[in-house]
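Pasting as-is:
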Amino acid sequence: MQGYGTIPLPAIRGKQGGRTFYVSNLPNLLVRNFLRDVQSAVDISERSQRPLDPKHADDITNYLKSNVNEYVVGALTFAMKTEGEFTPLPNQSSDGYELGTLQFNLVQEFHSLDGQHRRQAIIKAMEEVDSIRDDSTAVIFYVEPELKRRQQMFSDMNSTPRKVSKSLNIAYNNRDPFARAAKQLAEDHPLLKGKIEKLQPRVKSDSSDFYSLSSIQDAVKRVVTGSISKGVVIEDLTDNEIQRRGGEFFDLLLKSRNEFTAAANDPKVLQKFREDTILFSSTTLRVLAGAVGRANQYYKAQTPTAIHDKLVNALAKIDFGVNSDLFIKSGFIARGSSTPSARNQEIVAAIRAVTEKMKDGTGEEKKPKITKPPLRTVH
């Protein structure tokens, strides 16, 4: 390293799959100024990382800025061509790793394997939040000089991870108000209590559960965002208000559709409903939440009791069978099918169709009466 400046870093040196690797902790200023990815400007065939998605990086930046005091960012992973100059601390036992100091040449080249969007987000967030500039980030350095082997490392690292189900993510999410409301409703509401799949992304066909937790969160969010008056900011709603609105939606379903009570008491009845209707589909729940949100806006000038009664009456009359003309004409289902389309276009069409069924004309805004001037007679 003669002729170049160096940066000393505390590090742990170890072996993994025949490669030397180092684990260290870099101040975020070094993440920005020193830990540059040299492959960002090269052709994709010469890279060992996917192209950077600016929107994904921006999403992480917003997360960092919104949770300055409790954000979590996983370790960044880079490859480098040489082992570097490592000085182990004296008197260490041989337990498969060594503590010491790693000296980096200032012209050292790094190749990103994992975390390029996190690095970009940290750099952007630092520009606006001083405390993030003062934080640090864990970094893993693998020694791998060969391009094809680095590409294989990237492939290996992305071939085995399993994405966490949305329901489980919601179950552990205590920050999002809609997740909090969904979890509380799943515990307390008579339609949902003991009938919600909280771990898996969807309900199995032979399950006694009605919906997944992610479906409940989605429904609550749709009915609330569709119900609030123009000019009201979602962030200004309290947990109690969100839970109340979500609870009112499930009250409507429980009161208007006796299928839920019948299915709760007999798994065979639930299975039959799943075969003959679309009522227990999470996609249908999404449609109903969207339609109820719109209907609440349509009747907004009326009392809550009057709105509730109108919607209960309307929902009770809707045909949710697999041969329902309402849903077939909207393209939401094919005749005889109990599996609705999850495409946004068909969902929107179904929301509109159900909303129209909920209107009775009393929510229409009165149009101003136009008086035509009398005809003038020309003599």
